[in-house]
Each structure stands twice: as structure tokens, then as C-alpha cells.
Specification:
Order of helices and strands: HHHHHHHHHHHHHHHHHH
Number of helices: 18
Shape: globular
Length: 364
């Protein structure tokens, strides 16, 4: 835990050193977070780094690009590997330059950190709050959800093009993300919703209805999955136990997302006379909706990350609307403290990231 405490304190210190130089803060904080990703032991995270991605890394070295493209490297038990062909091609490209798995982990983890720090630099009005919330809620997934976090890197870039009102480039980024992790296709709904739908009380009503239906009438969610799952893969994975449907995911994550949405909405109400960009509110709403359905199928919490990652901007951009400077500073301090405590008491344990282990350490 000492490593994480040190990193949190270092990020706070960097913020005050570069308080008026947001770019320098984002670069230095991002570099610090990158080092933790690159130097971690492969045993950290929920087994995927050793049991899923190491075999992939070793296997692609034995096959050509053509074999990867034509699926001839896959056996009958590897059908799930077809989802995310671009990821295997990227992995193959990296293995052309290095066969060191530790270097690979650093290279494949870098885009997630870089793209996150880029949107913090470009859109966050309180970068310290953004980075600390990112560390507490979303950062540690990069230790084991390697393919999805790489996919989210392009979703973050898609958000940039959505803000610039460039639907073609937005779609290209989402499609690239989908080629890495097919679930990223869900982010296509973000553009029309953020552009044409006005945020309001209906967002909270829809969240409440979704939570109630998922919790008390899960069969309705199953029915919708069956009708919308055109490939049949989701139902198949539920039936084979690959996707957990035993209500094993805590809803605390959904409550956190909803709490952040409520917090930002409170300050939004004070600024209604000004033109509002509701995109962050809609993305947070979508994240909450999808997370609520994880009580039916646990993997939906991972799906929610494509939307809820933008809470790092939502909270930071609306806490600064508090006009009383003293209260604003108190709120920022409370957010930093609470997020840090959440990371230290919950996140690092839930993601098997405590204690932090360097890659050169001997682990039995």
C-alpha cells in the first residue's frame, strides 16, 4: 500500500508544483502512472495478465500476420479470440521488435494513460480531481483488462471528435476500438444521444427504472439480451458460465456513478441560464444504466466503463462552479481525500493490486 500512498502524494505535489501549467502536470502525473503499469509484476490483477495475455503474447510470435488475419492460428477452443482481431495484430507488431513480455506490458498499457491524460489536459477544469478520480475508479483496470483498456483509449479519442462535432472521425475511432474489443461498438449510441437529447429529470427516472427492473425482474433483461444479441455470443457465454449471472457484482459502483451524476447536476442547476453541453451528463447516465444491469450479468460493469470513464471530467468541471472559493477548496479537498481512501481501501484490494509488486521481485 505504501507505493500507492506515495503515488497519490506525488500526484498532489505535482499539481501544486505545476498548478498554472496543466500540460506539465498531466505529462508528469501520466508518466508516474505509466511507470506503475510498466513495472508491475505479472501476478498483479485478476489473473488475466498471466493466464490470458501472456499466452497470447507467446502464441502470436509463432504465427505470421496472414495466419492471424485468416484465423488459422486458432483452434476450436479459441473462438473467443476472434473478437478483437486488431489487438492480436498490434501484439504481433510489438513482438517484431521485442519478445520481452514486460516491455510489451508497458507498450500496450501506454495508450490508455496517454489518452486519459490528453482529455484531462484538453477538457478538465480541475485536473487534480480528474486524475485522482481516475486513479481511484478506473486506473487499476489497466493492470489486467489490457485489451479493453486499449479499446477505451480510442473511445477517449472518439469523445474528442464528438466534442468537435466530427461524426465521421468519431465513428472511425469507435470502429477501431471495436476491432480491439467488440463491446466498444456500444459507444456509437453516444453521439446521437449527446447531440439530440436534452438532459433532465428523465435521466434519473430511467436509471431508477433500469435498476428496479434489473434487480426485481432480471428475466426482462435476459429477454432483451436474447432479442438484441444478434450473434448469440452473450447468451452462449452466460449459459457456459463465462459470464457470471449470479448477482455477484456489488452495486456500490453504480451508486458511486449516480452520486457523481447527482453532484454535477446540483451545480448544473445553478447555471441553467448559460448554454450547456450535456454530453458528460448523458455519458454518466449511460454508464449508470449499464452498470445497473450488472446485477443480472456481471460483465456489464465492464461495459459501463466505456461511458463512466468520463466521470473524471464531469466531477472536475462542475465542482469549480461553486462560487464560494473556500467551499470550492473544501469540496475539492474532500473529493481528493475520499477518492484516495476509496483507492487505498477498496480498489487496490478488489483488483488484486495490493501490495504493489515490481516485476523483478521473486513471487512464489
Amino acid at each position: 500500500m505504501a507505493i500507492y500512498i506515495g503515488v497519490i502524494l506525488a500526484v498532489i505535489l505535482l499539481y501544486f508544483i505545476f498548478k498554472d501549467k496543466k500540460m506539465y502536470f498531466c505529462i508528469s502525473a501520466g508518466t508516474l502512472l505509466f511507470f506503475l503499469v510498466a513495472f508491475r509484476h505479472t501476478s498483479m490483477g485478476i489473473l488475466d495478465t498471466e493466464n490470458v495475455y501472456l499466452p497470447i503474447f507467446m502464441r502470436v510470435q509463432q504465427h505470421s500476420f496472414i495466419e492471424i488475419l485468416t484465423n488459422s492460428m486458432l483452434s476450436g477452443n479459441d473462438i473467443a479470440w476472434l473478437n478483437g482481431k486488431l489487438f492480436f495484430l498490434i501484439t504481433k507488431c510489438i513482438t517484431c521488435f521485442t519478445t520481452d513480455y514486460q516491455i510489451y506490458l508497458g507498450l500496450i498499457g501506454a495508450p490508455y494513460i496517454i489518452s486519459t491524460m490528453y482529455i484531462v489536459y484538453k477538457y478538465s477544469k480541475q485536473p487534480l480531481v480528474s486524475v485522482i478520480i481516475f486513479m481511484a475508479l478506473y486506473y487499476l483496470y489497466s493492470f489486467f483488462l489490457i485489451r479493453q483498456m486499449l479499446s477505451i483509449s480510442f473511445i477517449l479519442l472518439a469523445f474528442v471528435f464528438m466534442k468537435k462535432k466530427k461524426p465521421f472521425l468519431f465513428t472511425i475511432m469507435v470502429l477501431i476500438a471495436t476491432l480491439i474489443h467488440q463491446t466498444a461498438i456500444i459507444f456509437l449510441i453516444a453521439y446521437p444521444i449527446c447531440k439530440y437529447v436534452k438532459f433532465g429529470k428523465k435521466n434519473f427516472i430511467i436509471i431508477a427504472i433500469t435498476f428496479g427492473v434489473a434487480y426485481f425482474f432480471p428475466q426482462i433483461i435476459y429477454f432483451l439480451i436474447e432479442r438484441l444479441d444478434f450473434t448469440g455470443k452473450i447468451i452462449q457465454r452466460i449459459q457456459h458460465g463465462i459470464y457470471d449471472s449470479n448477482n455477484s457484482v456489488s452495486m456500490f459502483g453504480a451508486f458511486l456513478t449516480i452520486a457523481m451524476l447527482c453532484f454535477a447536476t446540483y451545480y448544473r442547476q445553478k447555471e441553467l441560464e448559460k448554454p450547456m453541453d450535456d454530453s458528460l451528463f448523458h455519458l454518466s447516465t449511460l454508464g449508470s444504466l449499464v452498470f445497473c444491469m450488472s446485477s443480472v450479468v456481471s460483465e456489464f460493469y465492464r461495459l459501463s466503463l466505456f461511458f463512466s470513464i468520463f466521470n473524471i471530467l464531469l466531477v472536475s468541471n462542475y465542482v469549480v462552479l461553486e462560487k464560494n472559493k473556500m467551499i470550492q477548496n473544501v469540496l475539492i479537498s474532500l473529493i481528493v481525500i475520499c477518492a484516495s481512501l476509496y483507492m487505498l481501501t477498496r480498489s487496490i484490494n478488489n483488483t488484486n493490486s495490493n501490495p504493489y509488486i515490481f516485476y523483478w521481485s521473486d513471487v512464489e
